[in-house]
């Protein structure tokens, strides 16, 4: 997920919660029951398998580098784009919409589009009553905005017809919606429903996992990286990984010219030498 300052304008301010409200609105994270927890017929736990060398120290180092919480994703990610004072169903819809807008788009641009949409009252009904041209103007310049107008309209109509204006509460139903991919679905489950369903892998997580050697073999797509990470990363860390690595990718482990000289993982990173020299 991505970052800008579009969400820090006047409109955002008018919706800003007090500190106390922020605290009370924080979504608690629960975990889906594992096979083991579901009881009869459950498989025995598997023996510990492969895990990357040094991953625990690498993770500690990334947490240290991210301790300032000052990356774009920390202020403008999907969990910051919805109106915390809106009814739960509306909040969940806004979370999904911000995720749909965020693909191939910087967080700053997504936040700006969400601010403009929220200023008009962002609900399933209001979107369905907005003509395509106006919706396009409101979300421009998010990436692929023309396609997103179409997907947002189609998804909103489905949500109204099949889900009473709410969003579905499973990854399978979420990815069946037009314009919703696996990363968005897992983030929607975490942010909107407070359920950890899987690791949300975007281009940042995909790139960094491969650079650090967190996949047993190199992976070619975010979905393959998600499966590779879920094979060894303890489940209690799944919800943390997306925000942690996205911000790390925005500030330090950049797609081009990563800041290896300033990275605490330099001596532990298999990619450092080839990317930044000895
Ligand atoms: S050493 Fe460089 S490539 Fe490795 S994690 Fe740090 S910034 Fe990324």
TrEMBL record:
Residues 101-251 form the HhH-GPD domain. It catalyses: 2'-deoxyribonucleotide-(2'-deoxyribose 5'-phosphate)-2'-deoxyribonucleotide-DNA = a 3'-end 2'-deoxyribonucleotide-(2,3-dehydro-2,3-deoxyribose 5'-phosphate)-DNA + a 5'-end 5'-phospho-2'-deoxyribonucleoside-DNA + H(+). Residues 1-52 are annotated as: Disordered. Keywords: 4Fe-4S, DNA damage, DNA repair, Glycosidase, Hydrolase, Iron, Iron-sulfur, Lyase, Metal-binding, Mitochondrion, Nucleus, Transit peptide. Residues 9-25 have a biased composition (Basic residues). InterPro entries: DNA_glycosylase, Endonuclease-III-like_CS2, Endonuclease3_FeS-loop_motif, HhH-GPD_domain, HhH_base_excis_C, HhH_motif, NTH1. The keyword DNA damage applies. Residues 33-43 have a biased composition (Basic and acidic residues). Bifunctional DNA N-glycosylase with associated apurinic/apyrimidinic (AP) lyase function that catalyzes the first step in base excision repair (BER), the primary repair pathway for the repair of oxidative DNA damage. The DNA N-glycosylase activity releases the damaged DNA base from DNA by cleaving the N-glycosidic bond, leaving an AP site. The AP lyase activity cleaves the phosphodiester bond 3' to the AP site by a beta-elimination. Primarily recognizes and repairs oxidative base damage of pyrimidines. Interacts with YBX1. Interacts with ERCC5/XPG; the interaction stimulates NTHL1 activity and NTHL1 binding to its DNA substrate. PANTHER family: ENDONUCLEASE III-LIKE PROTEIN 1. This is Endonuclease III-like protein 1. The lineage of its organism: Eukaryota, Metazoa, Chordata, Craniata, Vertebrata.
